[in-house]
Write a structure and sequence with these properties.
Elements lengths: L11 E9 L13 H6 L2 E10 L3 E2 L22 E2 L43 E2 L13 E2 L3 E13 L6 E9 L35 E9 L1
Antiparallel strand pairs: 1-2, 2-7, 3-6, 4-5, 7-8, 8-9
Amino acid sequence: EGGLSNFHARHRFGTCVLYQLPAGAGRRWSGRNPLARLAGNWEVGGIVTLQSGQPFTVNLAVDQSGTGAGQIEASDRPDVISDPYRAGPVPSHPNPACHTTAAQGGRAADLVGDPASWFNPCAFAAAPGRFGNAGRNALIGPGLANVDLLVLRDFPFGGDRRRLQLRFELFNLLNHPNFDLPDRVFDSPTFGRVLSANAFGSKPPRQIQLGLKYIF
């Protein structure tokens, strides 16, 4: 039962950048210069987040061991008989469908690390009457890559601190799909496939937001 935590991320990189254009009152480009008026009081920023995938456990939907332990603990798992991250047929698999790839009419993955087959489902086999030797959180799901962009401009009121701020924000600027964990249930017909990219609302596609803020 020893394994990685559910929230484990082997690698994570995050950075935030905010750049103030050198135009406007008290800056390099100031005065009545048309360029200074056009580009004055603008700021551009962004957040970049890159993260490795989270671990998950392959389990069964039936009481394979006959212990009645239930599926809340997900203690019944298949056996691992091959490298899940290696595509291709698994000749030692008891299911003949795993002796050929999906492109050939079988079940073995033609490639791995793809939403259609994140890992090779034929790397696992049923273990009747036993718990199975597949480890807890032994596989790693898709990673996360996200870029947010911020563009804003201040409109000051005279010489005091009051100002209007116009904000233009883009979340997931590149509209990059960040996939959820693949189907990990051994008995499922979609075992090993990634079925969603935002099932829990935490990995949305590109979103655009326009805001007006009064600062005083």
